[in-house]
């Protein structure tokens, strides 16, 4: 698994550390959640399943038909 080293200012680190303690998660879990949210925000897949779903949505076969708009049937009057 690839790893990267990142740096935070003291205030940000204190806030992250407090959040980790409050939620009983470690830094790795918080980082994975944050990066998953970031990828979702920018419409990027987070895994293979998401990538396949997004590519299937872009296929023209999945677009709505561009024919005439659907008109509701006229109601028959009852006397």
Write a short abstract of this structure.
The protein is mainly α and 79 residues long. The chain has helices at residues 10-23, 27-41, 48-58.
Explain what you see:
With 79 residues, this protein is mostly helical. 51% of the residues lie in helices and 0% in strands. It contains three helices and no strands. The chain has helices at 10-23, 27-41, 48-58. The mean pLDDT is 83.
What is this structure's SSE topology?
Blueprint: H1 10-23, H2 27-41, H3 48-58
β-sheet strand percentage: under 5%
The chain-level mean pLDDT equals 83
Question: How many runs of DSSP E, i.e. beta strands?
Answer: 0
Poorly predicted sequence stretches spanning 5 or more consecutive residues: none
Order of helices and strands: HHH
How far apart the termini lie comes to 75 Å
Structural class: mainly alpha
**Radius of gyration computed on alpha carbons:** 24 Å
Output the number of helix runs.
3
Major beta-sheet overview: none
**Helix amount:** 40-55%
Shape: elongated
């Amino acid at each position: 698994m690839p790893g990267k080293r990142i740096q935070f200012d003291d205030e940000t680190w204190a806030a992250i550390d407090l959040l980790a303690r409050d939620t009983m998660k470690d830094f790795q879990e918080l980082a994975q959640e944050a990066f998953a949210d970031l990828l979702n925000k920018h419409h990027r897949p987070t895994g293979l399943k998401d990538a396949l779903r997004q590519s299937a949505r872009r296929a023209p076969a999945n677009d709505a038909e561009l024919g005439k708009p659907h008109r509701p049937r006229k109601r028959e009057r009852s006397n």
